[in-house]
Amino acid sequence: MLNSASLRLRLLAGAALTVAIASPAFAAATPTAAKDPAPTAVSTDPAPAPADPTTAEPASADPADPTGLGEIVVTATKRETNLQKTPIAINVLSSQALTDRHVQSLYDLADGAVPSLRVATFEARQSALTIGIRGIVPLDANQPAREQGVGIYIDGVYLGRQHGLNAALFDVDRIEVLKGPQGTLFGRNTEGGALSIVTKGPTGKWGGSATAGIANYGGYNGALRLDLPEVYGVSLKLDGVVQYQGATTKNPLVGQTGFNYYDRRGFKATARIHPIAGMTADFSYDNGYDSNSPFYSQLLNVNPNGCVAGAQSATSACTLPGTNYATLTGAVKPLPSQVVVNGTSRMKVADIGVPQQPSIDKTHGFTSNIRWEVAPEIELRSITAWRGVSATQYDNSGGYHRVPVVAAGCTGTACNFSRYSLADLYQHQFSQEFQAVGTVGQVDYVAGLYYFNEHIGDDAATPNSLAFNPTLSTISVLDPCTGSGGFGSQPGCRSIDRASEVWSKSYAAYGQVTWNATDRVHLTAGGRYTRDEKQGVLHYSRNLNYDTATTAQLTAAGYAPLDATWNRFNPMATLAYDASDAVHVYAKYATGYRAGGASSRTANYQTFNPEDVKSYEIGAKTDFWNHRARLNLAGYIMDRKNSQVDISSIQTTATGSFNNLVTINAPGITKIRGIEADLTVQPVNGLTLTAGYAYTYTKIPPVLIASTGVYQNFYIVFTPRNAANGSIDYTMPVGDMDVKFHLDGNYSQATQTFDQFATKNDPAFIANARIALANIQVGGSNALTISAWTRNLFNKQYVFRRDPSNSLPGAPTSSTATSGSIANVLGDYGNFNAPRTYGMEASVKF
């Protein structure tokens, strides 16, 4: 672990470098630029893009100076601003950058396209994503009464759930990654930052594009985008996408779905009108469908901690965090011959075939985005949205690699195994936001009112699906309705582990002003008041119907409905200084908070409180070498109070098993410290080089577990200490055409998967590449691009999710337990990353 002295030295070094870059001598180093730069591909310098869905024309470099890296317009402050003059740490991925990396969904950014941005798929299915920035990463935000730590926005609309986030992307103009708390302008649940997806709107002119591609694993993709001419004052834009990939790990059971498969499709229609002078109104509808299966969960080792019955002290490695067992009971069972242990390479075929259906996510929404320039000093905006998500989960990716463990000589339900994790979730949300944006004299201002209303419910069951015979020589498929202790996987046949329902409302008022004291000095101050109301109930827990249970039963479970209200005021202040036309420095104080809730995976519906973050940041944005190079730096200190941390365990029953997950608030202050750097250089015509780096230090104070009297360490998941990336983009004219080459590499150190375990995943290095022949003229003005792409170019294999819970003693059965059972000790299991994929694609613009 990095000690505090070393940490301070790194932070001081970063600050010193910031000051050095801000010096006039550095800013003056601007050799003569060449002509016709290549478009930038990634990081903080994408190709110029429209500032907003309602902006028809893209931003561009100064027409008086067409050389160098073009201006990048962002909307992080709710107004269109130049990225290099915006005092916020931001990375931007342009539409070209997404194409070059063959990014079809947000999960494709898990390779490290932005070092500070971490994306991980939920174990049970690919459509539920965990997204973190700067060490703010919730382990399990799948629960209805649990919130995310990073806000996800599409065209200004906040998405309340992480379900359905991996659906296909519609004609994205850019993705803005805002780093650090955004609690003033973006609101609750943006402690780590915000990810803002901006799509392209109608132009009122005929145009569009069509894309079709094929790939290995039976993959194919297609997209059709039509921009129709304005008719009777209405401009219409239509977008449709399809994406398919066959399983990369085969399922031996005939007729069942393999693993790491997806089949996505979506449609979006947007209409734009101008009812009166100065007003633009966009109305859109989108619908998405995502059928997918989880990554295969391999058994990586067997009893790696050497667990044996007897005194706990004799096998110190066989220790469940947070417990003080005196003895270990039971025995580690021998491994059946059918089970394969493989911790070094990705399995192409599962060792045991299992019942497996695709999980299905459906998303849809209506959005109204109205902007009215009432006067030169004020623009009024209204963003209204209604959205819905439904998710049906089928996850049997563990087979025998997860509990329960079967012993020879078993009888009845003791022979059953292969936990089939089934879950249904639905969510509806309505949001309304009013904004007033403008400039009066030397003051830029933003003011707004916000309302959010969400209704969400879920249920889950985890029956077993397979059974050994008593000699462990054969495996049979259990009856899908009654085979698992009288229950099964079919709807109507399930033993319900849990079912809950939550109603949430959020009200907010915010304002932010920037005083441009001089041409170089800018002082920004703002604040947001938020009131959150959340009510929730458990309908089922452990197959007990709480709606009809007796008072005695509810009292025995310690159950109480969730009924809570939280109020917060989140201030921010920024001092920015333009040291020169090419150097912008700033110091920023910002705050954010994540709402509290309750864990539906506990019998008592255990509640937890909100967490709050304070952030102190300094940064420099520099443009030198006559606009051929940019270096952006940021150093920050974040203190988080009442960190929400999770304790997870699988507990077996006669009908299967259930996941008991308790969320608690860690006392004290969680420390998060970091340094970030982004560099873009255009050394010669057509060549663009980018590099990014993020250093993130995190420390949660040890937590005293009240039931055992033991201090336990907790960790922040999916957050590497060091992460870096780089890319090369080269464009070479060939006659009237262009040959384009892209290569990127992305590295991250090993990270934890679970809050409660020190066990880490593997470090990773992933490269992606694309080569294209662009601007092929066909049919007059139509431009054709033919390309070949590959993701994970070198077919690297690493475990991105490692679970040690099956290699440790079982969770305590009571607060006074002094012994732990090792009867279900098996080994660590985990998921390898996706294998190399590659394909060809053709796209034509018209």
Describe this entry's structure for a reader:
4% of the residues lie in helices and 50% in strands. It has 846 residues and is mainly β. The longest helix has 19 residues, at 4-22.
The end-to-end span amounts to 56 Å
The helix content is: under 10%
Q: What average pLDDT do the residues reach? A: 89
The helix tally amounts to 4
List the helices and strands and how they pair.
Layout: H1 4-22, H2 24-27, E1 73-74, E2 81-82, E3 90-94, H3 95-100, E4 117-121, E5 129-133, E6 150-154, E7 157-158, E8 172-179, E9 193-199, E10 207-215, E11 220-227, E12 234-245, E13 262-273, E14 279-292, E15 297-299, E16 310-311, E17 327-329, E18 359-375, E19 378-395, E20 416-419, E21 421-440, E22 443-461, E23 464-468, E24 475-477, E25 498-516, E26 521-541, E27 544-545, H4 551-557, E28 562-580, E29 583-594, E30 597-598, E31 607-608, E32 611-624, E33 629-653, E34 656-681, E35 687-699, E36 703-705, E37 710-712, E38 722-734, E39 737-748, E40 764-778, E41 782-791, E42 799-803, E43 819-821, E44 829-832, E45 837-845
Parallel strand pairs: 6-9, 17-43
Antiparallel strand pairs: 1-2, 3-8, 4-5, 6-7, 8-9, 10-11, 10-45, 11-12, 12-13, 13-14, 14-18, 15-44, 16-17, 18-19, 19-21, 20-23, 21-22, 22-25, 23-24, 25-26, 26-27, 26-28, 28-29, 29-32, 30-31, 32-33, 33-34, 34-35, 35-38, 36-37, 38-39, 39-40, 40-41, 41-45, 42-44
